[in-house]
Amino acid sequence: MSYIPYEIITHKRQVCSLYKKACRTIEDWYHYRPLMRINIVRLRKRFDDNKNIIDVPLAKELLQKGQHELWANQHYYPHQFPSSPGGTAFERDVFPPDWVLDSWHPLEKAQYPKYFAKREERKKEYIALWEKRWGKPFIPHDEH
């Protein structure tokens, strides 16, 4: 998907982004924590060795080489967090319906007396509005 960038990303931010993506790639390849940690420390040393470079063209070249290296070493099946875009639980926030509160135990309701008193008032108002608009529900009693 192409888009028009609306801000210029600084070199510092690009380097930080590259570092984070490289760390995530290492996490994809190594599942044994100590090995993962060793490789991330080695990666950090590589970044720290080049952090004081003042020459702008050289810094841009190193950034581009790092991005190419990241692309070459990317994992074939990268880890995706469940709640992130592309994850299995993305935008699956379950909001319980209002009637769940009706099933609370009276001791639980007693912890929030003002809320439940107001809620009962609003339920009565809603029922009155419903009956005014649609009429009382017809329930046949002699069918079964």
UniProtKB/TrEMBL annotation:
<dbReference type="InterPro" id="IPR045292">
    <property type="entry name" value="Complex1_LYR_NDUFB9_LYRM3"/>
</dbReference>
<comment type="subunit">
    <text>Mammalian complex I is composed of 45 different subunits.</text>
</comment>
<feature type="domain" description="Complex 1 LYR protein">
    <location>
        <begin position="13"/>
        <end position="71"/>
    </location>
</feature>
<keyword id="KW-0007">Acetylation</keyword>
<protein>
    <recommendedName>
        <fullName>NADH dehydrogenase [ubiquinone] 1 beta subcomplex subunit 9</fullName>
    </recommendedName>
</protein>
<keyword id="KW-0496">Mitochondrion</keyword>
<dbReference type="GO" id="GO:0006120">
    <property type="term" value="P:mitochondrial electron transport, NADH to ubiquinone"/>
</dbReference>
<keyword id="KW-0472">Membrane</keyword>
<comment type="similarity">
    <text>Belongs to the complex I LYR family.</text>
</comment>
<comment type="function">
    <text>Accessory subunit of the mitochondrial membrane respiratory chain NADH dehydrogenase (Complex I), that is believed to be not involved in catalysis. Complex I functions in the transfer of electrons from NADH to the respiratory chain. The immediate electron acceptor for the enzyme is believed to be ubiquinone.</text>
</comment>
<keyword id="KW-0679">Respiratory chain</keyword>
<keyword id="KW-0597">Phosphoprotein</keyword>
<dbReference type="InterPro" id="IPR033034">
    <property type="entry name" value="NDUFB9"/>
</dbReference>
<dbReference type="Pfam" id="PF05347">
    <property type="entry name" value="Complex1_LYR"/>
</dbReference>
<keyword id="KW-0249">Electron transport</keyword>
<keyword id="KW-0999">Mitochondrion inner membrane</keyword>
<keyword id="KW-0813">Transport</keyword>
<dbReference type="GO" id="GO:0005743">
    <property type="term" value="C:mitochondrial inner membrane"/>
</dbReference>
<dbReference type="InterPro" id="IPR008011">
    <property type="entry name" value="Complex1_LYR_dom"/>
</dbReference>
